[in-house]
Design goal:
The complex is a heterodimer of chains A (512) and B (378). With 512 residues, chain A is mostly helical. Helices cover 61% and strands 1% of the residues of chain A. In chain A, helix 7 runs antiparallel to helix 8. The longest helix of chain A has 33 residues. Chain B is an alpha+beta fold. The chains are: A mainly alpha (512), B alpha+beta (378).
Chain lengths: 512, 378
């Protein structure tokens, strides 16, 4: 593997395991032990014959533990981001549809001056920037009474990020609760469904690399295997909804099954486009393609694919605006209404895990994985290039990858704060009429690019115009589509989203 | 999937209170509905028969937690009609200020609750933040934050406090700016439009037949506002007109009902600003409680056989109080109190509006009618 950094956990583990196995080999007795009629036994030789397999087993077990531990520890940041970021978006003044909301405050101050809570005064720069921005473009009001409402700054002793361990406390609370199965539930399926959901989600992480040397398994077709495993959980959701014997969970499970095909096929087609453009079904090779071979992140070559992947992934992990299966307004909590205790807690953690996996995958597929942004350009700069080179060498890949993943998750939260929940029939229409054609167009463009534009003999692979032209065209199209609002047409068609069904969906099948 | 009945409520996020909506679904489509009201019936009308005319005000405050002032004022006008009291003009202006600020607060509560109904929580936090400003203003007037007990038979409890005019102007101007932010979150979002447009059509003629009133009927293009059609208080002296949404051929949908309330908040804010400018004696003068400028002398006994009634434009529609005066030996207390609650009439009609739409549309439709169960069950 070409891309690498100094945090060589796989290499270290491998050498430690090999060294200790050799040690065991050395201290085992080397003489033959007579066993009478059974012949002789040489323990050292016997051990030597299984040493390779044993080393692989122990090494893989350790790597699985490392990856799982990395995932669980870094996962704690995800609910923290969700809570804190959405609180910032909500309690400030102004449209969440703009990032302006992060720094605008009341009367030239921002409500809870969170930068003061960072240790060692490292937030002073942020505070200065925010205050300056507020004085230039902040809201003009000076109402102390309003400040009082969203004055929820943290006034305790600063130890870690305030509220960071809330997730752990929540988990302990769930773990100590009673396990209740509804009396008329289908008990076997009811108990199996969480296992399906949780196990398949954890299995996804077997193929997700956290860094060039932090991964558990790397089969040749890891992308295909992982997407297949990723798609199993909605089936478990359907099981859970059906077996709970509750009308809300039934509708929730049905919604999950109904919307499955609408986003799963566009998702798989856009993943296929990634494989086409990178020339591999292997996740590590896709990242390597961006870092080493083409030197261009996939998002610049395939912006439409990135947008499609993002939208379908939000649908896949069932977050707003695509969280119809759990729609709390009409279905209370949808398919998991009847679950409680540790099963509910684990499934909630799994929701986070799936969103987290989606963010990591986006970073891997489109944002160059563990590469610093514009690393080669920055390193090539005169005078300051050395500093960036040092930075790139010193930063472990896992830190860069996680930073990108957390940023993507913040984007998910931003979407959640800005949008409403759409209806099941609307996601079906959106999926079949917009996402599927767009993903097929994206696949065709990817094939064309790979066949005609990609030049493996030239340095870098992509011609110099490819990234600016493709990315620029996407941005221009996005802006045109976003602002192209014909006021008159809007007035005439102001009820274009009309959906009323007066005839029954399936006449003649009812018992009424 | 065969048809089945689902019982939503009495504890359900859609209900905004305590009641049950039974829906019959065919897959995701609603084919029949049946509202079931009465879970928090407290017998306010009966309680009022054993209270004197001053004490009843506090009970009327508690008819609706989101819009207390409009209900106590609704009662007080009926009581003044019964007792034959002439209210000083300054007191009328103060009442108008209190009622219109309360209307803004009530509509903000509605908008804040409507966001979570269709999946957005941000708007709730924003609206409650601005409602806080309105609550602060009402607290300056009435002294408490939710149930103000502000009006008195013949006037108001207190005059505008010092500096109220300035604070009210500043807060309302800030609030008028904030409305644009709600619109940028709602109207400019296609997801909101697909959820609210073409959903929950309510035809104006049907609504008139059912007796639906207030913002819900004005959303369908019916130009009926009690403040405008039968002006009471000093509404005729202000420069305003009722907000009426342009009617479409199918009637009003959820989007219309959202628009009408946003427009009404704007209109109420401008009415308060005008009233502060026009108030006789000036907004900065302060009279002690009980001063004849703000509280007229009122008899405590009603003549036998007298009746009083008043139509009032509540935040949710036309409310009405009917009081029959004292009988033998009980002149201080009303013989009978009857309350017309707009939501008691609207909820059955709203339940009817849901037929033909999806299960996901139920909170969107029900929320857009702005139900308040406290006044419904009385």
């Amino acid at each position: 593997m070409a891309s690498s950094d100094w945090l060589d956990i796989r290499g270290w583990t491998e050498s430690i395991v090999g060294w200790s196995m050799d040690l065991v080999y050395d201290i085992l007795p080397s003489n033959d032990i007579g066993l009478g009629p059974l012949g002789t036994l040489n323990i050292q030789n016997e051990f030597g014959s299984i040493q390779g397999a044993l080393e692989t087993f122990i090494f893989t077990t350790i790597m699985c533990t490392v990856v799982f531990g990395t995932m669980m520890i870094t996962l704690m940041v995800v609910p923290y981001i969700e809570r804190k970021f959405i609180a910032r978006l909500m309690d400030r003044l102004g449209a969440t549809t703009t990032l302006r909301s992060l720094w605008i405050g009341e009367g030239h101050t921002t409500a809870g001056q969170w930068w003061n809570q960072l240790p060692f005064g490292i937030g002073a720069i942020v505070g200065w920037v925010v205050k300056t921005l507020n004085s230039v473009a902040g809201n003009e009001s000076k109402h102390i009474a309003v400040d009082r409402v969203h004055n929820r700054g943290y006034h305790g002793i600063w130890f870690l990020f305030p509220g960071f361990f809330q997730a752990l406390a929540d988990f302990l609370k769930f773990a100590t609760k009673e396990h209740i199965v509804p009396a008329k539930a289908d008990r076997v399926v009811f108990e199996t469904a969480p296992v399906i959901i949780i196990a398949t989600t954890v299995m996804v992480y077997a193929f997700v690399p956290f860094g060039p040397h932090i991964w558990a398994a790397n089969p040749e077709l890891s992308l295909v295997f992982m997407m297949a495993v990723f798609g199993v959980a909605p089936l478990g959701v359907f099981f859970a909804g059906w077996s709970s014997n509750n009308k809300y969970t039934l509708i929730g499970g049905m919604r999950s099954a109904a919307q499955l095909t609408a986003y799963e096929i566009p998702l798989l087609v856009s993943v296929l486009a990634i494989a086409v453009i990178s020339g591999s079904f292997n996740i590590l090779e896709i990242v390597d393609f961006q870092i080493e071979t083409s030197n261009t992140w996939n998002i610049f070559i395939m912006p439409l694919g990135a947008a499609l992947f993002l939208i379908t992934m939000i649908a896949e992990v069932e977050r707003i605006p695509f969280d119809m299966p759990e729609a709390e307004a009409e279905l209370v909590e949808g398919w998991w209404t009847e679950y409680g205790g540790i099963r509910w807690g684990l499934m909630f953690a799994v929701e986070m895990m799936r969103a987290y996996a989606a963010c990591i995958l986006f970073a891997l597929f489109f944002l160059g994985g563990w590469q610093l942004p514009f690393e080669d350009t920055l390193v090539g700069l005169p005078f300051v290039g050395g500093i960036f080179e040092m930075l790139a060498t010193a930063t472990p890949g896992v830190a860069i990858l996680l930073a990108k993943a957390y940023l993507m998750f913040a984007f998910f939260v931003w979407i959640r704060a800005s949008l409403h929940r759409i209806r099941t029939d609307q996601i079906l229409e959106f999926g079949w009429r917009w996402l599927l054609p767009a993903s097929i167009v994206n696949l065709a463009v990817a094939i064309l690019l790979r066949l005609e534009v990609w030049n493996s003999t030239a340095a870098g692979g992509w011609p110099i115009w490819a990234a600016p032209v493709l990315f620029g065209a996407f941005i221009v199209a996005f802006i045109v589509l976003a602002i192209d609002e014909d006021e008159e047409a809007l007035e005439l068609n102001r009820r274009m989203y009309h959906t009323q069904t007066l005839e029954k969906a399936s006449p003649g099948t009812h018992r009424d | 999937m065969a048809e089945m009945w689902i019982s939503m409520g009495p504890q359900h996020p859609m209900t905004h209170g305590l009641w049950t909506l039974k829906i019959k679904v065919d897959g995701e489509t609603v084919v029949d509905t049946e509202p079931d009201l009465g879970y928090i019936h407290r017998g306010v009308e009966k309680i009022c028969e054993a209270r004197d005319f001053t004490q009843i005000t506090t009970y009327c405050d508690r008819l609706c937690y989101a819009s207390a002032n409009t209900w106590s004022h609704s009662y007080i006008y009926a009581a003044e009609d019964l007792l034959g009291v002439e209210v000083p003009e300054r007191a009328e202006y103060i009442r108008l200020i209190a009622v219109e600020i309360q209307r803004i607060a009530s509509h903000l509560m509605w908008l804040g609750a409507y966001g979570p109904d269709i999946g957005n929580l941000s708007i709730m936090v924003w609206c409650l933040r601005e409602r806080e400003m309105m609550m602060d203003l009402l607290q300056e007037l009435g002294g408490s934050r939710m149930h103000y007990n502000f009006p008195r038979v013949g006037g108001v409890k207190r005059d505008l406090p010092h500096g109220f005019a300035q604070r009210a102007r500043a807060k309302l101007k800030l609030f008028l700016n904030r409305i644009q932010e709600y619109e940028s979150l709602f109207d400019e979002s296609t997801v909101f439009l697909v959820r609210s447009q073409g959903v929950g059509y309510a035809k104006p003629e049907e609504m008139i037949n059912h007796g639906v009133s207030g913002p819900n009927i004005r959303a369908a293009g019916v130009d009926y506002d009690v403040r405008w059609a039968h002006p009471y208080s000093v509404y005729s002296e202000l420069d305003w007109q009722p907000s009426v949404e342009r009617s479409s051929i199918k009637g009003a949908d959820c989007y219309d009902r959202y628009r009408i309330r946003v427009e009404e908040m704007r209109m109420s804010a401008s009415m308060v600003l005008q009233a502060i400018d026009k108030i006789p004696g000036g907004a900065e003068t302060y009279h002690e409680p009980g001063d004849p400028k703000i509280l007229a002398k009122a008899p405590s006994r009603a003549p036998e056989g007298a009746t009083g009634s008043h139509h009032f434009e509540d935040s949710r529609g036309e409310s009405m109080f009917y009081l029959a005066g004292g009988g033998e030996g009980r002149g201080k207390m009303p013989y009978r109190v009857s309350i017309r609650s707009p939501m008691f009439i609207t909820i059955p009609y709203a339940a009817k509006c849901m037929i033909g739409y999806k299960v996901a549309d139920i909170p969107a439709i029900m929320g857009s009618f702005d139900p308040c169960i406290g006044e419904t069950d009385r």
